[in-house]
Amino acid sequence: MESIFEVDVASRCHCGIRCVLKTSWTNENLGRRFLGCYNYRVAGGCNYFKWVDHPVPPRENELITTLLRRCEESERKRHMAENKLQTFDEDMKKLHNEMVGREEKLSDIMYVAGVMNYEEMNELLLDILHHNDAFSDE
């Protein structure tokens, strides 16, 4: 077996094609590199296979597997947090737009209040509240 830095990628398989350097992601050989036929598992390809790295001791393999699973879980949680943040941002924009609309209505009411008496203003406020309730039911 060659050292980690001396991989003969010019090797040829039984088909006469240059081998490709691949990495195993199985639990038994996690991260272990090997040379294989370019057409491995394809019609017409041979089953040439040669390990490049030494076997990983069981304890190290267990640690690598555990760390890889933790990374995958962290990545999944990060995606979930990004989705929640995006939803939160969208909700904040909706609330902001709603608040701007209400501020405009309040400004209109305050302008009209200077011209209306108390009963007219009360009637207008009730109409606005009734109108907002109709939209919130949709």
From TrEMBL:
Transmembrane listed as a keyword: no
Keyword Cytoplasm: no
Sections of the chain in a coiled coil: 64-98
Entry-linked Pfam families: Zn_ribbon_GRF
Domain of life: Eukaryota
Alphabetic keyword roster: Coiled coil, Metal-binding, Zinc, Zinc-finger
Ranges where the GRF-type domain occurs: 13-55
InterPro entries reported for this sequence: Znf_GRF
GO molecular function: zinc ion binding
PANTHER family: ZINC ION-BINDING PROTEIN
Protein name: GRF-type domain-containing protein
Organism: Forsythia ovata
